[in-house]
TrEMBL record:
The keyword Iron does not apply. The keyword NAD applies. Belongs to the UDP-glucose/GDP-mannose dehydrogenase family. This is Nucleotide sugar dehydrogenase. NCBIfam families: NDP-sugDHase. InterPro entries: 6-PGluconate_DH-like_C_sf, NAD(P)-bd_dom_sf, UDP-Glc/GDP-Man, UDP-Glc/GDP-Man_DH_C, UDP-Glc/GDP-Man_DH_C_sf, UDP-Glc/GDP-Man_DH_dimer, UDP-Glc/GDP-Man_DH_N, UDP_ManNAc/GlcNAc_DH. Gene3D superfamilies: NAD(P)-binding Rossmann-like Domain. It comes from Paenibacillus illinoisensis. Residues 317-413 form the UDP-glucose/GDP-mannose dehydrogenase C-terminal domain. Transmembrane segments: none annotated. Keywords: NAD, Oxidoreductase.
Length: 428
């Protein structure tokens, strides 16, 4: 069987590889010619997908990449894995899905199965995949072609869960669509979770990540209250986590980043809102999480003042720019907001991140990651641990830094040094 994957990012490329390893002839399509060039050179840009896998699948004739939609004419299965960001107005942006559907329409082969995997609001598959394809081809879904929705569930950087062993939810536009989709995914994935419609599948995905956002917001909201009550929230959460049933740990931080947790709940609240429902937990969680960078900067400024240093001109090192531990992704990273706010307050801010070599500031200048050496910690008036990468030597940081503000409780095992931890009453 031949398959096409549209969108070769952190979702599409692992899916394409998994399908090719199962013996499908896979052609990946991406609008970014640079990605295609790198893949054709056997060079992977996705954590967890090694160059050797791309090379061996290419040599076996099981994987090719290109930018042209014409390859869809050969495809029995087309999987769409394109981004679903927010617009500047904080609304769902499904323009990438619409562009993928427009691009493939002229080439759709009768009898083929189209699967949307991008995280999106309930109704997207019916309104923006099934309906346009029926209108353009004159075919009827479930007869001359098939449409399913199956959300991606990759956890970037995870070593335990990958495409193959993460249960796969799938909904079809018709029962015939669902049975085709189950047969396809069932041929190479461990567990299939069929549901009664594409809309149920879309909503389940959004709920999973909204659940995370709301619970992260809960511990973020509790953090200043614990500081004021003189209670160490990390100790509270560790004690609560001993509950063997009915509990799942979440921890405070400098805010939430990535392309899922800050965004998916907004898709859900937008969809509920257009039907007249107002999901207040989502609105409150979003506001609470989004104010964390500012809270971090306010506390950092207070710590500097207590140390006799004005924020204006203070030397600050951000340890970690990536949005979460041990990955290289900057999207929506709260560290970027902390950087912006401190720079706006006149501090001299630099960063060090073993996973992120450079980042582009808003004014377009490119900043290099500083080497994480004792001299850097000693140079700073304040070191803020924004991302708890395993690659940092936290004891060395404690030994050489004048002052550390730890927003991830990464220094829990350290001794000595002047360390203030978010959510802990000030130990000094
Ligand atoms: N965060 C906290 N406190 C927490 C957990 C996360 O502040 O207790 C922050 C992280 O630092 C990060 C953001 O929230 O900035 C998102 O963290 P995440 O662990 O949810 O990481 P993601 O965005 O990589 O989430 C992915 C999601 N996968 C998909 O949507 C397909 C999510 O569903 C997974 O549950 C999550 O990975 C995971 O389990 O790690």
């Amino acid at each position: 069987l031949k398959a096409v994957v549209i969108g070769l990012g952190y979702v599409g490329l692992p899916m394409a590889v998994e399908m090719a390893q199962a013996g499908y002839r896979v052609h990946g399509i991406d609008i970014d010619a640079f990605k295609v060039t790198r893949l054709r050179a056997g060079d992977s840009y996705v954590i967890g997908i090694e160059d050797e896998i791309i090379q061996s699948l290419t040599q076996a004739g099981l994987f090719t990449a290109g930018t042209d939609y014409a390859a869809v004419t050969q495809a029995d299965v087309i999987v769409i894995c394109v981004p679903t960001p927010l617009t500047a107005a904080h609304q769902p942006d499904i323009s990438y899905i619409a562009a993928a559907v427009d691009g493939m329409t002229p080439y759709l082969k009768e009898g083929s199965l189209v699967i949307l995997e991008s995280t999106t609001y309930p109704g997207t598959t019916e309104e923006h995949v099934k309906q346009p394809l029926e209108a353009a081809t004159g075919w009827r879904v479930g007869e001359q072609f098939y449409v399913c929705y199956s959300p991606e569930r990759v956890d970037p950087g995870s070593v335990n869960y990958g495409v193959k062993n993460t249960p796969k939810i799938i909904g079809g536009s018709t029962p015939a669509c669902l049975s085709y989709g189950k047969e396809f995914y069932g041929s190479f994935l461990n567990e299939i979770v069929p549901v009664s419609s594409t809309t149920v599948a879309e909503t389940a995905k959004l709920f999973e990540n909204t659940f995370r956002s709301v619970n992260i917001a809960l511990v973020n909201e509790l953090t200043p209250a614990c500081e004021q009550m003189g209670v160490n929230i990390w100790e509270v959460l560790d004690a609560a986590a001993t509950k063997p049933f009915g509990y799942m740990p979440f921890y405070p931080g400098p805010g939430i980043g990535g392309h899922c947790i800050p965004i998916d709940p907004i898709y859900l609240s937008w969809a509920a809102n257009r039907q007249g429902s107002d999901l207040q937990f989502i609105t409150l969680a979003d506001a609470t999480n989004r104010q964390m960078p500012e809270r971090v900067v306010q506390r950092a400024a207070a710590l500097l003042e207590q140390a006799g240093t004005r924020v204006q001109g203070a030397r600050v090192v951000l340890a970690g720019m990536a949005y979460k531990k041990d990955i290289d992704d900057l999207r929506e990273s709260p560290a970027l907001d902390v950087f912006r706010l401190l720079s706006a307050a006149g501090a001299e801010v630099v960063f060090t991140d073993p996973m992120v070599p450079v980042f582009r500031k808003d004014d377009g200048t490119v900043l290099q990651s500083q080497p994480a050496v004792p001299g850097l910690w000693a140079w700073a008036d304040l070191v803020i641990i924004t991302t708890d990468h395993s690659g940092f030597n936290y004891q060395e940081m404690a030994d050489h830094a004048k002052l550390i503000f730890d927003t991830r409780n990464a220094t829990a095992g350290c001794h000595g040094g002047h360390i203030v931890v978010l959510g802990q009453p000030d130990r000094s």
